Amino acid sequence: MVQKAKILLVDDRPENLLALEAILSALDQTLVRASSGEEALKALLTDDFAVILLDVQMPGMDGFETAAHIKRRERTRDIPIIFLTAINHGPHHTFRGYAAGAVDYISKPFDPWVLRAKVSVFVELYMKNCQLREQAALLRLQLEGSDGGQGGAAAKETAGLLAELSARLAAVEEQAEALSKQLDDESADAAAVATAAHLERKLTGLRRALDALEPGTGGGGSGLPA
């Protein structure tokens, strides 16, 4: 059974963290607090997160610096970051957020429903990714068992599961391709484009992992996306 996803909330003001927890509690996921950039980086050393909500204006290490550290680490570089800021300095400020690796940039005060909806998209993507990785790992074990001489029945069952998994992933890939085509114009929202690009990277990693499980491809290695 897939465990709850963890969502990292980073803000130096306790009242803001409390407000975020109240908004996101309906998602029924694990909410982790961090009151500084340094504390956030420490939490990221040991736990995996579906998404990070990161305040821009913080004393010491601000949101941009924190995001730069997150994106430099191989373990955390693919975690989506949503910047939250009470100050809007215009397009250049927003561009700096996207340049730092954000998938979205939201100005306070924000609509609670919109924020919850945005976060839920990344939580769902994270959960699907975990499920596909677990299924791929199970298939690998079954393939190794079949190679050990457990019989043709096990091999046929494994092949069927592998085909089903491939078909499910193909359906998601088709939807992602359609989304990218819709966003392929200058008027597209930058956050939506960044989100679609992140999704495509994840799907590419999953497809590589699945292809590695195909018989005759030497799938003994990991091949799984991080």
From TrEMBL:
Superkingdom, natural source: Bacteria
Keywords linked to the UniProt accession: Coiled coil, Phosphoprotein
Sites of 4-aspartylphosphate modification: D55
InterPro entries: Bact_response_regulator, CheY-like_superfamily, Sig_transdc_resp-reg_receiver
Residue ranges the record marks as coiled coil: 155-189
Domain Response regulatory stretches: 6-123
SUPFAM superfamilies in UniProt: CheY-like
Pfam family, one: Response_reg
Protein known as: Response regulator
Species for this entry: Streptomyces tamarix
